[in-house]
């Protein structure tokens, strides 16, 4: 597994140890099975942003601290210049660029998500809260609660993120979209 995934896995393990809680408690907070959580914590499986979002909300820990290993410090404003957001490539197909990593106490987590075309099936996930997606470039298939929607440049979707959802780039081209997790 990728070194960045292993670093996130180590931070998950460290958080669980610091909180002195069981694998079951952490898996319950992440809304996954104990087996799936352990695969993530051991760095043996890609770690969905939804899992990190659920854990960060449940334990009141900044999601960017789990993703990037740094605590946000800014409380007045945080400026992200074009192309300069802290980025993580979870897999070769998905890249997340945080647009507010340095702002402490955020009520939302905005990302630019880049999805590369691939033949893999859509990976569905869920997380607490709501999500807003706005397509900047390309076209994508977004599946939500069993319904397939095609989103094109300029299209947006706001939805209940507790419903199973996932996306896939279309037309054998990269898609970029703004995702705001609330």
Automatic annotation (TrEMBL):
InterPro entries: Cro/C1-type_HTH, Cupin_2, Lambda_DNA-bd_dom_sf, RmlC-like_jellyroll, RmlC_Cupin_sf, TransReg_Diox_bact_type. GO terms for molecular function: DNA binding; DNA-binding transcription factor activity. Pfam families: Cupin_2. Gene3D superfamilies: Jelly Rolls, lambda repressor-like DNA-binding domains. GO terms for cellular component: cytosol. It comes from the Bacteria. Keywords: DNA-binding. The keyword Cell cycle does not apply. Residues 12-66 form the HTH cro/C1-type domain. PANTHER family: BLL2473 PROTEIN, HTH-TYPE TRANSCRIPTIONAL REGULATOR. This is Cupin domain-containing protein. It comes from Paludibacter jiangxiensis.
């Amino acid at each position: 597994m990728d070194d960045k995934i292993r670093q996130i896995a180590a931070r998950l393990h460290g958080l669980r140890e610091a909180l002195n809680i069981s694998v079951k408690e952490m898996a319950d907070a992440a809304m996954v099975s104990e087996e799936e959580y352990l695969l993530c914590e051991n760095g043996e499986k890609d770690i969905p942003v939804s899992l990190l979002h659920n854990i960060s909300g449940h334990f009141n820990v900044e999601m960017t601290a789990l993703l990037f290993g740094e605590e946000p410090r800014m409380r007045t404003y945080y400026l992200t210049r074009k192309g300069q957001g802290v980025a993580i490539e979870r897999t070769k197909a998905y890249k997340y660029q945080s647009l507010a990593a340095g702002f402490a106490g955020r009520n939302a987590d905005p990302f630019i998500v880049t999805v590369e075309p691939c033949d893999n099936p859509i990976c569905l996930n869920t997380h607490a809260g709501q999500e807003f997606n706005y397509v900047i470039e390309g076209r994508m298939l977004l599946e939500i609660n069993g319904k397939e929607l095609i989103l094109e440049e300029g299209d947006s979707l706001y939805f209940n993120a507790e419903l199973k959802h996932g996306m896939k780039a279309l037309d054998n081209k990269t898609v970029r979209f703004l995702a705001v997790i609330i």
